[in-house]
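Researcher: Before we compare anything, I want clean individual predictions. No alignment, no superposition, just each chain on its own. First chain goes here; please echo the sequence and then give the structure tokens.
Model: Echoing the first chain and its structure:
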Amino acid sequence: MKATIAVLPGDGIGPEVTAEAVRCLRAIAERFGHSFELPEASFGGAAIDASGKPLPAPTLALCKSADAVLMGAIGGPRWSSPDSSVRPEQGLLGLRRELAVYANLRPVVPHPALLEASPLKAELLHGVDILVVRELTGGIYFGEKTRTPQQATDLCVYTVAEIERVTRVAGRLAMERRRKVTSVDKANVLETSRLWRSVVTRVMRDEFPQVALDHMLVDAAAMHLLRAPREFDVLLTENMFGDILTDEASMLAGSMGLLPSASLGDGRTGLYEPIHGSAPDIAGRGIANPLGAILSSAMLLRHSLDLSKEALALETAVARAVDGGLRTADIAVAGGKALGTRAAGDAILRMLT
């Protein structure tokens, strides 16, 4: 297979972890007889520094022409002043909109060898396998915004069509899993959530009658993720709630550095990135955890390139490396040896068969 994968290293630790994911993709291509082109482009804060725009036109053109997009992380204190008119996050929101990737998939599956890395008790984590489906291009992040010296507003808007399409993604995925969807909202307060609950109920009832559906308020969901995480299968939620809940859920796995994500639409091209941020405090030190980025590249192989065998080979290599003792600073137990970013990538490549 021939494929073009646009690579957006971004800011902070983004270039470091993305480099390891690219190494793994090149290794997969070599071992399975594929040809991957992996052109890089400027994005986020780095692009602001270079061109004044977080999503330059050449970067967007490359992403639109590619079969998939692999991203590192963006942002940092130098671009984060409340008074900044141009911010890295504007580039990310714009890229999601332009690629029409409206469903963000975030799997949360604690590795048995890393249960001690989680702040939760190990007995709560055995058997946890959650897939969060987060609506990605609607809601408060994309609504009209105003600001004056005395007040600011952020408008949260959802349409029936937006809710229907992401619900169908959750329903289809649930059919391949344990056939349970938990829809998260704040329907006791918000009109957008009342619409969300109504539409989700109708779509699941009419199109996925084999899937059990329950509804949960977002504050209750935050509590249950820590109290009884095994109860969840597919967790369906709107944009902001999903952003917050998946950061919380990363603690089930032990670190944000472990979790991948895939942002998908109706076409082939998807956007793939680890859920963590740019971590400027450790950027350039070579200690960032690349597993989330590498597992994101495995999701890329599966969802955009339809290479399930290759994706499984990469995921298996990560699991075998962790079983064999791979620990980065964020998941090392007290007194244990922590590998650097490059060494962690080396350990995974050795396990790739």
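Researcher: Okay. Second chain, same rules.
Model: Second chain and its structure:
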Amino acid sequence: MHATDLARWQHDHLFDSGNEAGQRGTTVVAWVTVVMMVVEIAVGLSSNSMALLADGFHMSSHAVAIGLSAFAYAAARKHANDRCFAFGTWKMEILGGFASAVFLLVIVALMVYGSIERLFSPAPIHYREAILIACVGFAVNIISALILGKAHHHDHGHRHGHAH
């Protein structure tokens, strides 16, 4: 029997060690998005605002997308050293993005159906309540973008030989 040392042919499959700050920021934004989504849908229903309902359901797609991203971050970090992932775990993040895009298409189809239905059965809209919640939703979007931008800028998982 011939014994060969394969050590010189083996290599590490750790392509990305993960982004802890990105995972943390994404998790915070996911929960804030879920809360805002519930508020927008509830006020959209009570005020008969199709725009607020549309944004609430749109926020549901964001909640799913951001939740999938947070899950993908956690799974990618957990399995970063697992040899079963021969080309790294970053593919989990990409598949999470694809799944959220498919979910968004379903939401769009439901909103188109609801909008067409509203054309044939119009209802009075309580604008004051709807506008107030829309402004809060806009503020939540800006804050979420700042949180995600900061988390991804300061620790984006890749090392280029210089500090950020």
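Researcher: What stands out in the second chain?
Model: The longest helix spans residues 91-120. Additionally, The chain has a mean pLDDT of 77.
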